[in-house]
Write the structure tokens for this entry.
Amino acid sequence: MEYILKNGIVYDPTNNVNGDKKDVMIKDGKIVDNVSSDAKVLDVTDKLVMAAGVDVHSHIAGPKLCLGRLYRPEDSRAGVVAKTDITRAETGFSIPSCSATGYRYSRMGYGTVTEAAVPPLEAKHTHEEIMAIPNIDVSPLALFGNNWFVLQFVKENDLEGLAAFVSAWLKVSKCYGMKVVNPCGSEAWGWGQNVHGINDPAPYWGVTGGEVVRALTKVNEMLGLPHSMHVHPNDLGHPGNYPTTIDTLDVVKDIKKNPNVLRDQTIHCTHLQFHSYGGTSWRDAKSGAEPVADYINKNKHVTCDVGQVTFDETTTMTADAPMEYDLYKLTGLKWANKDIELETASGLIPVIYSPKSPVSTLQWAIGLELFLLIKDPWQVVLTTDSPNAGPFIRYPRIISWLMSSDRRTEMIENKEVHNWASKRTSLPTLDRVYDWNDIAITTRSAPAKILGLEKRGHLGIGANADVAVYDIEPENFDATKASNAAVVEDVLTRAAYTIKDGEVVVKDGKIVKIVPSRHMWTNVTGFEQQEKKVLEDIMPMFNRYYTVKFETYKVYDHYIDPAIEFTIDASK
């Protein structure tokens, strides 16, 4: 199909288009500069037009989601939607069914999502769930920070071997890039322990989290992977953790970025809100957002996403298993735990973020502080670490808070939230607001660039025809007014049009077409001989300790159909 989106108000920060009234033309799944007379005209006069959203960090596929659905039937019953002639029935609120995940992202105008934590041992199941998610392309990140082979290579200071292992394991797992969670801490959890800070070594290995992050970041740049190191630092959720966060970012400061990649950063710090706490305990906890934001403002090698709390009953799930145990001890809520052999650990527990709770309010305010204190919107992007701080369907609500300081003030002054927002954070003093261009950056352009996705997050010629249109007239609508916050949320939850690869999949907030999601993965070339040697070297250890055979461990091509392969020549 050929389309002309006629007379929309277009925000495309990648191409310096800031609210211009113009047409967007689509042909053969791409943005083009002209179409034939047969093109179908979609009249979007004065409506908001942006590239489809790109989510840099979410948890949407894999065994942890299945465990959550089984473990929390009350959550599954909370989001039931009847099937239609086009869609399957939907279930789940914080942990939606696979089909519901695709529908809900599509309705919000999103087209690309990163599944942020894939144990290679469980990559097959992750890809099976991606197969069942419609209408979005998914870039999975494989977990490396507590892998025994990684720890061995770091201990031996063998970067060449580590690079070959990473290259081989991305092929094995069919993943897009690398993720580190609580480096050395999840390995320590296998022995009933944790680490505290980046200089605390993993038991029996004598390797620290800082050494792991630094070595993997060097390897990431050696290989020229499209995305940078994606790091969940140590001490998540602990009062007084912000120095650990800054130290983690600083440990890679001198590592040069590969010149062949689109991104600017060498490290991406995920769900930064959970890592920006001051104080020594929850009794005297306070915001640590200002020093963290100040560091990011002074250092361009860092990008981050926020992990914004949304005041919902939700589900936490993470490879940071000792943190989940801490949360269980704190709340007494039902808790699940898993140790994944030689690779990582994980945990799951429900959580209730109440606006009347001092801790929940502190977390909510710290997230917004980070959005407002980090000066460059290209360095900070919108996430909820879904479902950990809240489900991804709350993105429009967060946008309404960012666009209206009046709404934030109203929530604080009318005591909709606990007074810790005033007493222990700087949020009441921050009157900065995001405009539509900033929103397009933090939800489209910046996450696409951070992920190294050249053809996504913008509407330039040759880009993927992933487009979102919203039924709001940005030139005639005051999003800064507190009374309009609910309108912003409602409009952004139900796109007037979502176009995926040149096909209309949402119209007037309803799914009108189902298209298969694609698996995005990185195929590193130029390291074939090194990979062969590494596999030979590690196979005795693999066969000794893993409970599966290597032949059944690998993800084969039929698990990733359809796929988008990003081929990287690491020999350059």
Summary: The mean pLDDT is 97.
